Amino acid sequence: MAALLISEAHMNAKRMKEILFLTALHTQKAFDVVNHSILLDKLFQKDIPPEIWETNNEMYNDLTSRVNWKGQHSNSFPVQQGVRPGGILSTHLYKIYIEDLLIQLEDSNIGLYLGTNYAGCSTCADDILLLSNSDEEMQVMLNVVDTYSKEHQYNIHPEKSVLIKQNENSTNSRKTSICSWSLGDRSVSETDKASHLGIIRSSKNENIINVKDRISLARRTTYLLMSTGALPTRTASVAVFSLLGALPIEAELHNRQLSLLHSILAPENQNLRDIFLPSIDELLAILPTKIKWKQTVRYAINTFWSNKFGSLSREKSTLIRLCTDTINIGEIRPVWKTATEIPGDTKKAITKARILTGTYRLQATKAKFNIGSTDPICPLCKLEEENFQHFLTRCPFLEGVRRTFYAPLKQAVIDKIGIDQWKTNFQNRETLTQLIVDCRKLVGSTLPNDSNFLNTVESISRNLCDKLHQQRLTQIIALSL
Ligand SMILES: [Zn+2]
């Protein structure tokens, strides 16, 4: 999964004609430097059952070791770091040890997003890879990583940690302003090739390099097998299969088809039977043509899911401002559709979509969903709770940005519904917030159903949301320095 995300990010950068900055971090002796008291503290905060915590505490607290040399034993000495090599729990414990770093990066909204999904730090145990489309953001990520490693008493090897730029060309490289990156006071070197999770990531021809690598591995394996005495090619297949105890491909296909049949009939797949389709008996009696069947299935699935999405999103408090009347399967929502092919606009649409779906994290949302004690107050103005209404319409720290886009937005609406209607409806902050988040929810009650007009509002509010997001991030970084 971690490797797939990186390949997706690469494809995405190619399509958007943007540079993808990747930094592969090399943690020095990763598993050996896990500090026991920090680890036990983190485990404690995980709300795991007390007896499991107690077992871990027994395993790692007051641990001592001694050296066995030719039957003689040295004096014992305390061991205060390192998870047990080869232990089943060790990788899990290590993941808990560094999990907060990944959460911190995601919570600060720094790093790459694929659609609304965060993909800024693709990680498998100690193999961490930072991803971003922005050179400056990559430096901020490295700063976060450096601070975390110091707090957690481990070292990141600056010489072995490397940065790669993918999809760089003369046009997009002009937009970058940083040419060297650092981890604390040491610089991170730039290279054109690095390995992450056994896959080579490179600035150019990544696929060709990896395919060559795999072919060479396959060739080495084949030669190794051949040297043990391979059979001549004329040997009958049946003899080969019976010697190997293997089955032909056809049997493998049968195997899969029959397990699929079981999955379809299993009670946990009741959902599948809720989709309105003819029963198996009816199908056996009259089997439709493949084309006809595909059409029937597509229609039944689309109807089932658009109804289900509608009812699910009405239940979710985070989707309160999302207009759920216009969910049509196969039809892209205006938030994506109106974002043109211009790379910058797609990026803005991502921010907008995260606001629309409630996945954009403000202090109030963090406080609501976090187990810990997050302060819901706006970190910038400290005046009131930082919710979407505050962020989009009230926070005085973002007023400058807001004013720039507020005027054209107001004008577009007034041109359509008149000044009186504007005054009656949009003095209300909640209605104004709704206008910015998803204007389509106001169709019928306040706004006319005119798609050109609604798309204009969508595109102004997209720019507004993006600028507010950037401004908020800049101010938060400035305040934290
Ligand atoms: Zn504020």
Automatic annotation (TrEMBL):
Q: Which domain of life is it from?
A: Eukaryota
Identify one Pfam family in the record: RVT_1
**What PANTHER family does this protein's entry cite?**
REVERSE TRANSCRIPTASE DOMAIN-CONTAINING PROTEIN, REVERSE TRANSCRIPTASE-LIKE PROTEIN WITH RNA-DIRECTED DNA POLYMERASE DOMAIN
Residues annotated as domain Reverse transcriptase = 1-201
Secretion signal span: none
Q: Which species is the source of this protein?
A: Mytilus coruscus
Protein name, UniProt field:
Reverse transcriptase domain-containing protein
